[in-house]
Amino acid sequence: MRYSLLATTFIRLSGCNLRCTWCDTPYAQELSSGKRTSIERILEEVRRRGIELVCITGGEPLFQNGTHELINALVDSGFVVDLETNGSMDISGIKRSEASIMISMDVKLPSSGEGESFLMENIDNLLEYDQLKFIIKDAVDMDSAFRFLEEHLPPCNVILTPVDNSGGDMLAEELIRRSRMNNPDSPLSNVLSRTRVMIQTHKVIWDPRRKGV
Ligand code: SF4
Q1: Among 29, 63, 137, 161, which residue has the most ligand 1 atoms within 8 Å of its CB, making it the best to mutate?
Q2: In this structure, which residue's CA is closest to atom 2 in ligand 1?
Q3: CA proximity to 136, closest of 161, 115, 106, 107
Q4: Whose CA is closest to 104, among 191, 3, 187?
């Protein structure tokens, strides 16, 4: 089950191994941009907020060695963790024995400049309540995303998101068109039925440049 649109505590970790052309958090790319703290201090702050769902994002959260320990500490304390990762780092070491850890994984497309970064073995470690996310800028990205879905048939939900929240209508129309054209008995049909177009709601509600929302 996904917890989208519920109140969430965000933990943003610094450092990223990629440099996407349209990155909206360039201030978090360098490891040195963050402030050193301990897992216990983070837990204290998360407990103080009292919100069940905790999203760990970045940068790239798995770029830091301590992230596995942080995830386990949060789960052991009764929180549900949503880990946002860029798809290039190995997720096989994350303990997935219970549904209290969800993974939201990007597949970088050509316009990002990091289109070759996806670690294909990660597909085998995604579960049905995870999600695979494609951030789409143009027609080349769109074709790449649908080709990826057809070739790899991911077992989880799929999100298509327009860069900068513009062009969502074209994405939705293309998804409808491809769903109608597709043979309903093909394995791809099942994947398309789990595919959604989503915009970044916080950038509509608040100024898109605003941090901490
Ligand atoms: S993976 Fe995320 S944080 Fe890293 S450069 Fe790309 S968009 Fe920015």
Answers
A1: 29
A2: 59
A3: 161
A4: 3
- Residue 129 Cα to ligand 1 middle (Å): 23
Q: What pLDDT sits at residue 31?
A: 94
Name the amino acid, one letter, at 129: Y
Alpha-carbon distance 72 to 193, whole Å?
A: 32
Confidence grade of residue 123 (pLDDT, cut at 50, 70, 90): very high
| Count of the separate structural domains present in the chain | 1
Report yes or no on 54 lying in a domain: yes
Using the predicted structure, report yes or no on whether residue 164 has a pLDDT greater than 90.
no
Q: For residue 142, give the CATH number of its domain.
A: 3.20.20.70
Among the atoms of ligand 1, which is closest to the Cα of residue 88? 1
211: in domain: no
Q: Rounded to the nearest whole angstrom, what is the distance from the C-alpha of residue 23 to the centroid of ligand 1?
A: 5
Q: Hey, which residues does 54 pair with through a beta bridge?
A: 9, 81
Ligand 1 centroid to residue 29 C-alpha, Å = 7
Domain that holds residue 141: 9-205
Which protein residues are within 6 Å of ligand 1, measured from CB? 16, 18-20, 23, 25, 28-29, 58-60, 86
- Domain assignment present for residue 43? The answer is yes
Q: Is residue 83 situated within a structural domain?
A: yes
Average pLDDT of the chain to the nearest whole number? 93
Report residue 196: phi and psi, to 5°.
-130, 155
Higher pLDDT, 153 or 97: 153
